[in-house]
Amino acid sequence: MIDVDKIKRDFPILSIKINGKPFVYLDNAATSQKPTQVIGSIVEYYSKYNANVHRGIYRISEKATEEYIKSKEKTAKFINAGGIENIVYTRNTTEAINTVALSWGGENIKKGDHILITDMEHHSNIVPWLLLARKNGAIVDYVKLDRNNEKLDIQSLKENLEKEPKIVSVTHASNVLGVINDVKYITGEAHKHNAIVMVDGAQSVPHMKVDVKKINCEFFAFSAHKMLGPTGIGVLYGKTDVLNAMNPLFGGGDMIRTVTRNSYTWNSLPWKFEAGTPNIEGGIALGVAIDYLNKIGIENIDAHEQELTKYALNKLSGIKDIELFGPTDIKVKTGVISFGIKGVHPHDVSQIFDDEGIAIRAGHHCAMPLVTEVLHKGAVSRISFYLYNDKKDIDIAINAINKVKRIFKI
Ligand SMILES: Cc1ncc(COP(=O)(O)O)c(C=O)c1O
Predict the structure, then answer these.
(1) Do the domain assignments include residue 25?
(2) pLDDT digits (tens, 9 = 90+) for 310-323
């Protein structure tokens, strides 16, 4: 059990008022709020040791470098990567996937090659592959969902793997359905067909124990801002041999060892992929966010969110005219619940929630193929939980749904 009241006190934004009402934040799948420890680490960096990394032979530059490297060590440990050579910092998940598509894909995917993704991907795991395919004549295939549109259809996965794709890129957890994909199994199947695997962990790493060695994927991506860290910093994990064989996307300072007028040699991993001055304070603050998650315990956070999800699903399924998307089995679901209220546009739902002080998401959730082509909706509403949410937050959301129904007379 985690002490939510104590946790809430660490998040200054949770004590603001919206429309004169206590703020309830239920849009955690979009981004998380930040504790004072993370905010403080950014202030501390700028007020006490602001200097560039890897360059200065003076104390505060050495301290900045040390803290930046320490953050990579914490990140590596958090997902059970081998070491910091496997941890490339990017701006976000999107940049990490684009890096793989452009660098690895640019070199290894040729005209007529297949790229396999799924029908539940976020745009950031669709568009980079479409861009690549448009450029080099590759073909993007999609694993379909099962009959209930709840999880991936294993038959469809197997059929698509018969086309011998060069890469399989799949989300670990859907930001719309909340379903957790068995990425260890998918990786095993993909490897039988000599495909490499990229996992989009934007919705998994903040909420559950992730072990990249167990998954055995070649690449794994996630964003700090969804796990209590700041915006502008993300992670690309890569297996050492794959990263060593891959060319960097950007050239510049820090990513080289030597440069002559006509040649260069690269720096070692992971620096080869981090050209220019990095997001130093973002990296350091990500390390502090990981400390915070470790202090509470990621397994405890997972169990807490499962409890909230069970509670919310139970309440929601008792309300007439509510349509739920995604599985209801909490063993394969994160704290993400998408729903519709029959006859009401999700934007209206979101606006009424906002009047009640509640932040939720409404729209296509950057997963248009899933929402419009599979679920056949223009938009859906979504509530999503994190460690600072409690059952009271859900009760307030349920009251807001009843208010929507009263206003729209349904
Ligand atoms: C499943 C999934 N993948 C990728 C992303 C993109 O993350 P970012 O915007 O931090 O790059 C998101 C963000 O919502 C997501 O939910």
Answers:
(1) yes
(2) 999 999 999 999 99
